[in-house]
């Protein structure tokens, strides 16, 4: 079955049993999770959330600076008051440098993208600490609890990152 046919068939089944059409727009648990886009992780099943509970912002690495626009909207317009940052073991962001990706793009497109940082990292724990600090120090972000975790893709367990 093609991907699109599979999506449509899965959704037909899902929507047949759908009972959550009355959820309110602001997340019930007033929280936002910033999470890597890695396909091996499903924050709903691994962290026990359901539709309507939390905002989930996903990007490559779960980087806070990339998520800033959405965090501001989440807090100022939709009332979230807690942030969880979730990075993970075996992340693709540990496998390249800005220069490497910039060179690939330059070679393949002729475009110079030296002004873009793709936000890779060399140290997983440090990347979580850096992102917690980025949000704590940002004047546009409300002073709310921010907790950082590393998710282990081999065990499905999260580990809190403390200084
Ligand atoms: Zn990742």
From TrEMBL:
Gene3D superfamilies per the UniProt record, alphabetical:
Carbonic anhydrase
Q: Where are the transmembrane segments?
A: none
CDD domains attached to this UniProt entry: beta_CA_cladeD
- SUPFAM superfamilies noted in UniProt: beta-carbonic anhydrase, cab
EC identifiers of the protein: 4.2.1.1
- Coiled-coil region(s) at which residues? none
Q: Determine the domain of life of the protein's source.
A: Eukaryota
Q: Does the keyword Transferase apply?
A: no
Among InterPro entries, the record links this protein to: Carbonic_anhydrase, Carbonic_anhydrase_sf
Pfam families attached to this UniProt entry: Pro_CA
Listed A to Z, the keywords are: Lyase, Metal-binding, Zinc
Q: What class of enzyme is it?
A: lyase
Task: List required co-factors.
Answer: Zn(2+)
Which reactions are catalysed by this chain? hydrogencarbonate + H(+) = CO2 + H2O
Family to which the UniProt record says this protein belongs: Belongs to the beta-class carbonic anhydrase family.
Protein function: Reversible hydration of carbon dioxide.
Q: Could you tell me what this protein is called?
A: Carbonic anhydrase
């Amino acid at each position: 079955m093609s991907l699109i046919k599979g999506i449509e068939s899965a959704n037909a089944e899902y929507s047949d049993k759908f009972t959550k059409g009355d959820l309110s727009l602001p997340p019930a648990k007033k929280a936002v999770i910033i999470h890597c886009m890695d396909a091996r992780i499903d924050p709903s099943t691994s962290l026990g959330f359901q539709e309507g509970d939390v905002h989930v912002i996903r990007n490559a690495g779960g980087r806070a600076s990339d998520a800033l626009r959405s965090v501001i909207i989440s807090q100022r317009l939709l009332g979230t008051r807690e942030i969880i940052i979730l990075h993970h073991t075996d992340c693709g962001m540990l496998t390249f440098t800005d220069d490497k990706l910039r060179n690939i793009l330059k070679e393949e497109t002729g475009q110079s993208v030296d002004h873009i940082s793709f936000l890779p990292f060399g140290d997983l724990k440090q990347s979580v600490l850096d992102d917690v600090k980025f949000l704590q120090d940002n004047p546009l972000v409300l002073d709310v609890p921010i907790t950082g975790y590393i998710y282990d893709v081999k065990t499905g367990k999260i580990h809190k990152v403390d200084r």
